[in-house]
Amino acid sequence: MPLKKGSSRKTIRKNVGELVKTYEKKGKIGTSKPKSKKAAQKQAVAIALSKAGKSRKKPVKKSKGGAIMTVKKKDGNKPVKIY
């Protein structure tokens, strides 16, 4: 069954479920063959969010022990700290 259009959580959830079902039946999602069910779930989420026109936010990695870089701007304003 084709994926549904829409960007609501309900639609995305149904699309993820649909993709996982096809993985369980055929062993592949589209043309790719994820090795584990967890990998298939992650890929299904990515496909469903892409279809909805949304993207998953990646967690921000915090640096350990003060590995902070300061970068000077070209226009001469204050330097910016990058974590």
- Helical region count? 2
Q: Any idea how many domains? A: 1
| End-to-end CA span | 45 Å
Q: Shape, please? A: elongated
Written account of the structure:
- The protein is mainly alpha-helical.
- It has one domain.
- 41% of the residues lie in helices and 7% in strands.
- It is built from two helices and two strands.
- A two-stranded antiparallel ribbon has the order 1-2.
- It is elongated.
- The N and C termini lie far apart (45 Å).
- The model has no long low-confidence stretch (mean pLDDT 82).
Layout: helices, strands, pairs:
Blueprint: H1 9-26, H2 37-52, E1 69-71, E2 80-82
Antiparallel strand pairs: 1-2
Helix pairs in contact: 1-2
Short structural description:
Helix content is 41%, strand content 7%. With 83 residues, the chain is mainly alpha-helical. The chain has a two-stranded antiparallel ribbon.
Task: Label this structure with key terms.
83 residues; mainly alpha; two-stranded antiparallel ribbon; 7% strand; elongated
